[in-house]
Structure formats: C-alpha cells, structure tokens
Amino acid sequence: MSKKEEFKEFIKKNPKLVKYVRNGEGSWQKFYEIYDIYGENEEAWKEYLGVTATVGTIDALSWLKNINLDSVQSGVANIQKMLGMVQELTSKDDKPKDEYKPRPIYKHFED
C-alpha cells in the first residue's frame, strides 16, 4: 500500500480532520506532511484529534502489562516482614519493666 493510500485510511479512521479542512483551519497538504513525517503518532495529532485521554489510558494499560506480579508480591512480603520486626521492637518497649522493690531491712535471706 502506498503512503497516499495509508493517509486516506488514516483520514477515514479520524473524521475530525475533515472538519478542520472544511472549516478552513487546516489543509490536506498540511495534514499529509504531518502524516509523512510522524505517521500515526498520537503526539503529533493530539492538537487535532484530542486524543490526550486515550493516550493516557493506553500508556497506563501498557505499563500494567509490563509489571512482574511475582516481584511485586515478594516486595510486599518483604515490607510486611520489616513492619512486623518494627512492631516487635516497639511493642517490647511498651511492656512494663520490673520495677525495683527494696527488701525490708529485717529480711536477710528471704525468710
């Protein structure tokens, strides 16, 4: 398929561009030059197509696909262990310590 035919297919997918040409806000030449240089890259077309929300969703989904759930699970397990250790250390300080009780003077050998 030639570049010109690919551009026509792109226009069919994005009818907003036709409105820009009909309103005199853009020209086919300008849109073709953008397409020739950048292709269907969303960043180049976001001004005309308003695809910012879609791009964010696509980026988030592709980011989620790349997450290794095993490493996330092991990281969470490590954090839980660390929090458990900190809790043990702080809970030991909360226990009342044996206070010193002086023996009466008249008791010499625990009688």
Explain what this protein looks like in three dimensions.
The structure is a single chain. By secondary structure, this protein is mostly helical. It has a domain at 3-50. It is 69% helix and 0% strand. It contains six helices and no strands. It has helices at 3-13, 16-22, 28-38, 42-49, 52-65, 69-94. The radius of gyration is 35 Å and the shape is rod-shaped. The N and C termini lie far apart (107 Å). The mean pLDDT is 80.
List the helices and strands and how they pair.
Blueprint: H1 3-13, H2 16-22, H3 28-38, H4 42-49, H5 52-65, H6 69-94
In short:
The chain is mainly α. It is 69% helix and 0% strand.
Describe the sheet with the most strands.
none
Low-confidence stretches: none
Shape: rod-shaped
Q: Which range best describes the helical content: under 10%, 10-25%, 25-40%, 40-55%, 55-70% or over 70%?
A: 55-70%
User: How are helices and strands ordered from N to C?
Assistant: HHHHHH
Question: Taking Cα atoms only, what radius of gyration do you get, to the nearest Å?
Answer: 35 Å
Strand-residue fraction? under 5%
| Quaternary state of the chains | single chain
Specify the number of helices: 6
Number of strands: 0
Structural class, judged by helices and strands?
mainly alpha
| Average pLDDT score | 80
Head-to-tail CA distance between termini: 107 Å
